[in-house]
Amino acid sequence: MDTTMKRILLLAFMTLNIFGLNADTLTLKAGHPDTYVVKKGDTLWDISGYFLKDPWRWPTLWGVNPQIANPHLIYPGDRLTLVFIDGQPRLVKKQHIKKGVEGRIVPKSDAIPAIDLALIQPYLLQNRVVEQEWLAAQPFVLSGESESKHHILNDIVFVNANMPIGQKVAIYEPGREFLDTETGDVLGREIILTASGRVTTDGEISKVQLLSNLRETKVGYAVIPVEDEALMSAFFVPTAAALDVPASVIATASANREAGKLEVVYLDKGLNAGVQPGHVFAIYRDGEEIILDNNGQPVRTVDRSSYDNVVAHFSDDKVFKVPDVYHGNLMVFKVFDKTSLGLIMMSDRPVRVKDKLVTPVNLTLKGE
C-alpha cells in the first residue's frame, strides 16, 4: 500500500465524521474500571469495551462534539476517568505530557484509531463487488512478454484495448458470484486486486508494466483504469443500522465455513438498501423449529425423519420455533451497490452464511 493511501486511511479513522450521533443512554458493564491508562495498540473500540456492554457506542461515551472537525485524540499514556455528566457516563482524559531529557515537551504522535486499521486495510483496497455485465466489458490480460503463465512485479503484460500511455491501471482476479440467500438473485461478482501497473505502449494491444504485486497476475484478469480522485473515503462513525428488512451474511471473506471475531464477511445489502460505512448490526442465528413426534417428545431439526418433516410442513400445532440466538455484532466498513463488507467486532459464537443481521438493541443505563 502506498504512503498516500496509508495517510488517507489513518486520517480518516482519526478524524471521524460524527454527525448523526444519537443521545440514547448507555449500558455500563458490571465491574467496569473507574480509570484506564491508554496503552500502545489500543483502539477506541477496545477501550470502550472495558466500560460498555455495547462498545460500538464509543462516540457517546467520549461525548464527541459534532461541531469539532477533529475530535479529542487519545494517546498512549493518557489517563481516562469515568464520570457522569447530566446522568450520562462520559470518559474524560488527563493528558500524558511527554518530555525530553532536558525537560522540553516532545510533540506526541500516533493517536489511537477507532479500530485496528490493519484488519481492514487489505479489503478497503483489494476487494470489490461489481456487476457481471460491467466486468465483462472491461479490458483483460491477453498474455505477457514473459513465457510464464504467472506475471509478477516489473513484468510487461498485453491488454486487449487501446489505453493512453501513462494510464494507471488496477488488475483484478474474478472471484465468487454472490446470490441473495432468499431469492437467488445475483448480487454481484467479487473481484480481488492482484497488481497495479501503468500503460507503457498504446495501440490496438497495449502494454502494461506491473508496478506492484499482491499476487500473481494471469491471463483473463480484468484491467481497470484508476483515477487518483477515486480513492475511497473511509470516514465513518459507528451508528446502529436500521433497515426495513434484516440483512444476511452471504459469504466469509476467507471463503471458510465460519468466521469469528475480527474476521470479515460479506452482507447481502448495500447502498441500494441504505447501508452505510459505520453501520453496526447485531448477528443472530435463526432459532430452529422443534416438532413433537407421535409420543409428544420434542425432535430437533438435525434429528428429524422424513415423516417428521411432513409433520412440520402440515401440522402447525406440533411445531415450535425457538428464539433466535445472538452470535455477536459487526461493523460495516465498505459498501457496494447491493452488498457490503463488515468486520466482526464481537463474537459469542461462530458466524455463518445465512446468519441474520438486525438493528442492535439499545439498553437503558445500568451503571453504578
From TrEMBL:
This is LysM peptidoglycan-binding domain-containing protein. PROSITE patterns: LYSM. Residues 34-82 form the LysM domain. InterPro entries: Bact_Kbp, LysM, LysM_dom_sf. It comes from Shewanella holmiensis.
